[in-house]
Amino acid sequence: MFCEKAIELIRELQRNSEGQLPAFNEDGLRQILQEMEALYEQNQADVNKAKSAARSDLIPSIKLRHCCLLRNQRCIMAYLYDRLLRIRALRWEYGSVLPANVRFHMSAEEVQWFSQYKKSLASFMRSLGGGAGLDITQDMKPPKSLYIQVRCLKDHGEFEIDDGTVILLKKNSQHFLPRWKCEQLIRQGVLEHVVS
Amino acid sequence: MDTQSYCPVPPGVGMEENFLSLDDILLSHERLPVRTECVFPRLGFLEKSSDTQDIPEATKMELPLWLSKGLYERKRKVLSVELPKVYREGWRTVFTADPNVVDLHKMGPYYYGLGSQMLHFDSPENPDIAQALLQTFIGRFRRTMDSSQNAYNEDTSALVERLDSLEKVLFRSGQNGLNSFQSWEKGQASQLTASSLVLNYRKRKLADVQT
C-alpha cells in the first residue's frame, strides 16, 4: 500500500508525545519523496494515455494515485510543522543554548530556523518596556520574593551574580540567590528550588 | 502543574479534520471495508489476494479512511463504503444498553473520531450513528470525569486502558487539574521546578548509557 512510510514518520512523533525531538528522519523523508516521484510519473503517463487514446477507464486509478500524492504531502507538512513546534518549545525550556544531544537531532534547516527564531524573539524582547527590554521567558510563575533558596543537584562550576560575586555551584551546596538569576538553571535541572 | 511550552496542533472538531494534526492523520489511517464500483486499471498489486493486473469491479477490500474519502463521490460512484462492524446496528444496541462496559480502546481507539468521519459517506443509518455516538459519550463521560478526579498518586493504567483516545485526553486534563490543585493546597504551586521536557531527556540519556 502507498503512504506507509509517511505514517511511520507521524507515528515516530506521536510516540514522543511529551515534546521531545526525535532525530530528523532524513532517510524516511527521502523515501517518501521517491514514492511521490514514482506516483507522479505513473500518473503523468496515464493522463497522457487517457487524453490521446480517450481511455476514460484509467481515471479512477489516476485519482487514487493523486490522493496518495496529497496524503504524502500532508504527512510531510505535518511532520515538519510539528517538529518546528517542538523546536520552538525548546527555546523556552532550555534557553538560547541547546545541549549537544538535542542539537544533534536537528537538520541543518531546523538549526537555521532555530537561530532565526531566537533572533526574532530577542529583538521583540529588546523592544519591550520603552526600549529598556524585558525578558519574557522569566517569571513563568509569579515571583513571591526576589531571593530564593536553592540547592545544587550537580557540579556546575563557577557562577557570577550581578554584584560581581562569584560563587561555586558544587553538588549538594545550598545558596541564597536572586530568583531571576537561577530560574533558568532550575528549569534545566541544575538547581533545585528549596521551599521551607 | 507546569506550563507546557509545546502544544501540538489540536485535532479537528466533529466532522472536520485538522490538516496538520498528528492525531487526525493517525485517525484517517484507520481502515474501512469498501467495495469497488468500477475497475482500477493497473493497480492490482494493492489487492494482495488476487494476481490480476487490475482491481476488478465489485472487489471487497480495506482502504484507509483518507483514500476512501478522497475517492468517494456522490455523483459518480467509484466505490461504496461499508460500515465497520462497531457502528452497525448490532453493536449500536450494545452501546445503548450500557456504554460503560465496552472497551472502546479495543473497538477504536478512535471510536468517536472515526464515527464522526463516517458521516461523510451517504448512508441511511447516519442519523442513528450520530445519535449512538453522542449517547455513548454522554453515558461514559461521568465515569471518566469521576475517575480522573479521584485517582491521586495512583496507577491510572487500569482506568485508562478502556478509554477512547478522545476520552484519554479528557482524563489527562482532569488529572492535570487535580494535580495542580493538590500542589497548590500543599503550597508547592510557587515552587520552581525543572522542566519536564528536560527531565525526560535526562531519563532517556541514562537509558542510552545503560543499554
Automatic annotation (TrEMBL), chain A:
InterPro entries: GINS_A, GINS_bundle-like_dom_sf, GINS_Psf1, PSF1_C. Residues 144-195 form the DNA replication complex GINS protein PSF1 C-terminal domain. This is DNA replication complex GINS protein PSF1. GO terms for cellular component: GINS complex. GO terms for biological process: DNA strand elongation involved in mitotic DNA replication. Residues 42-128 form the GINS subunit domain. Component of the GINS complex. Keywords: Chromosome, DNA replication, Nucleus. The keyword Nucleus applies. Belongs to the GINS1/PSF1 family. It holds the Pfam family Sld5. The keyword Nucleus applies. It is found in: Chromosome; Nucleus. Required for correct functioning of the GINS complex, a complex that plays an essential role in the initiation of DNA replication, and progression of DNA replication forks. GINS complex is a core component of CDC45-MCM-GINS (CMG) helicase, the molecular machine that unwinds template DNA during replication, and around which the replisome is built. Required for correct functioning of the GINS complex, a complex that plays an essential role in the initiation of DNA replication, and progression of DNA replication forks. GINS complex seems to bind preferentially to single-stranded DNA. CDD domains: GINS_A_psf1, GINS_B_Psf1. It comes from Kryptolebias marmoratus.
From TrEMBL, chain B:
Residues 93-185 form the GINS subunit domain. Its main location: nucleus. Residues 21-72 form the DNA replication complex GINS protein PSF3 N-terminal domain. It is found in: Nucleus. The keyword Cytoplasm does not apply. InterPro entries: GINS_A, GINS_bundle-like_dom_sf, GINS_Psf3, GINS_Psf3_sf, PSF3_N. Required for correct functioning of the GINS complex, a complex that plays an essential role in the initiation of DNA replication, and progression of DNA replication forks. GINS complex is a core component of CDC45-MCM-GINS (CMG) helicase, the molecular machine that unwinds template DNA during replication, and around which the replisome is built. The GINS complex plays an essential role in the initiation of DNA replication. Component of the GINS complex. Belongs to the GINS3/PSF3 family. This is DNA replication complex GINS protein PSF3. It comes from Kryptolebias marmoratus (Mangrove killifish).
